[in-house]
Amino acid sequence: MFIFSFDFMQRAFIAGLITAVLAATLGVFIVLRRLSLVGDSLSHASLAGVAGGMLLGFYPFYGALLAAAGAALLIEFIRRAFPRYAEVALAVVMSSAMALAVVMISLKKAFNADLFSYLFGSLVAVSPADVAVITGAGIFILISIAFLYRELFAITFDEEAARLAGIPVAAVNIYFTLLTALTVALAVRVVGTLLVSALMVIPPAVSLQIARSFKAAFGIAIGVALLAVITGLYASFVFDLAPGGTIVLIASTILVAVMVAKGAINRWK
Amino acid sequence: MAYPYNKREVVRLVDVTFAYNGSPVLERVNLAVEAGEFLALIGPNGAAKSTLLKIMVGLLRPKVGEVRLFGQDIRRFRDWHRIGYISQNASHINTSFPATVAEVVASGYYSGLKGLFEGSTRKRMVDEALELAGIKELAGRLIGELSGGQRQKVFLARALVKRPAALFLDEPTTGIDVSSREEFYRLLAHLNREKGLTVIIVTHDIGAAFSRAQKIGCVRDRGVYIHEKLSEVDQDHIAEVLGYRIGENHVYL
């Protein structure tokens, strides 16, 4: 595998594989809770954080993380003010964050290659510092999910029943939203802000088509995400394509193929 | 004002008033249910039956009045393993949710951090609950593939998995065929008589309620009226719940 002779490809693969596992794992809960647009809102917020980091001269990942976490809490706050219109909170945060990002980019008066890499993902842009942060934070997120698995399953399936089982639902929800914000901030480096939510939604959507248990749903979603990232990164290197777009297109193709195959099998039965 | 606590008391409401957007739906409600009782709450649509049940288990908090579960103030109640609850929404689950029956039942058993180290205990309790609800053979099936009647038994098993002392059910047989409904009520009556489980159920199935429950609670006019005999229940109220008056041509199911 000659592509691994390049240091930047090794880093891109490590970051990509960790991102795939994280996005797919959290994505299963996000999709089943009908919060698919949360990933979109948080990724737009993280773009504002990246622009802020570039404008003020600090590591853009920290900006992305702070902005995504702040947006996650803001969504919860606005949602309480509009309990019957949950999507209002997502639309307000997404458009405001995008507006903030555009204003900050215009203040710097530069739409440079680095910013472009955060929008659509980049192979060469993953630095050793990025890999260290993605690995450390990734392990933390996976341990958190392993500890909270039973609580998250119960809340996702039936929030009312979870509350009466004694689960501290509000606290678990806020913690999960912050984990989602952290995952979005990490994933931005590889797939870019505009496509990160697709990586959180498409692999779980594939798993919903074929999984025969909740645990299997995780296995399938992670498998699809890994397959999309590995083939996507490889194709983007060979054909000089934007990695984020390539990864998401491959994941979408897998989803369509599974849906068509399932439909054909059902008709044949 | 303090009241003497009867140790057999499962739930007690003292002068409870509850309002939605300033309009009271329950006013100065007083109610006590003792261990081992089977209470059916009936009433027309919009009479606040489900609201009353949710107040009992703490899902809704009244601004006025006192609610006690097993003698404890509901605001400080933490013994959630002592109650099981089946909500009205249970029949409207997402049928594409990729969970097996065993996974759903296990979600009813929660013991905090301790739960991380008691996988075998949880498995044993899930097996027992499946057995009790008579659905052991469904353990590996997807929840979305089951019939309405089978699904309700899964939710019953989820409510039973922590071995509760009292079961609260909110219209659990909505949308279920007559024979499954009958079987479900038989199971509840068995759990009440043989296992001593306290049952409080909101229902429109007046026939089933009257044949199994020891007490009938009529929820109307923002209050609850408890009757111990079928003959005590106001026929006008039954007609209001059923939508027709029981005559010679109608029999209880």
UniProtKB/TrEMBL annotation, chain A:
It comes from the Bacteria. The keyword Transmembrane helix applies. It is found in: Cell membrane; Membrane. It is a multi-pass membrane protein. InterPro entries: ABC_BtuC-like, ABC_TroCD. The chain crosses the membrane at residues 12-32, 52-75, 87-107, 119-149, 161-178, 184-202, 214-235, 241-261. The keyword Endoplasmic reticulum does not apply. GO terms for biological process: response to zinc ion; transmembrane transport. Keywords: Membrane, Transmembrane, Transmembrane helix, Transport. GO terms for cellular component: ATP-binding cassette (ABC) transporter complex. Belongs to the ABC-3 integral membrane protein family. This is High-affinity zinc uptake system membrane protein ZnuB. It comes from Moorella mulderi DSM 14980. The lineage of its organism: Bacteria, Bacillati, Bacillota, Clostridia, Neomoorellales. The gene is znuB.
TrEMBL record, chain B:
Keywords: ATP-binding, Hydrolase, Nucleotide-binding, Transport. InterPro entries: AAA+_ATPase, ABC_transporter-like_ATP-bd, ABC_transporter-like_CS, Metal_Ion_Import_ABC, P-loop_NTPase. One of its GO terms (molecular function) is ATP binding. Pfam families: ABC_tran (PF00005). Its EC number is 3.6.3.-. It is an enzyme of class 3 (hydrolase). Belongs to the ABC transporter superfamily. PANTHER family: METAL TRANSPORT SYSTEM ATP-BINDING PROTEIN TM_0124-RELATED (PTHR42734). This is High-affinity zinc uptake system ATP-binding protein ZnuC. It comes from Moorella mulderi DSM 14980. The gene is znuC.
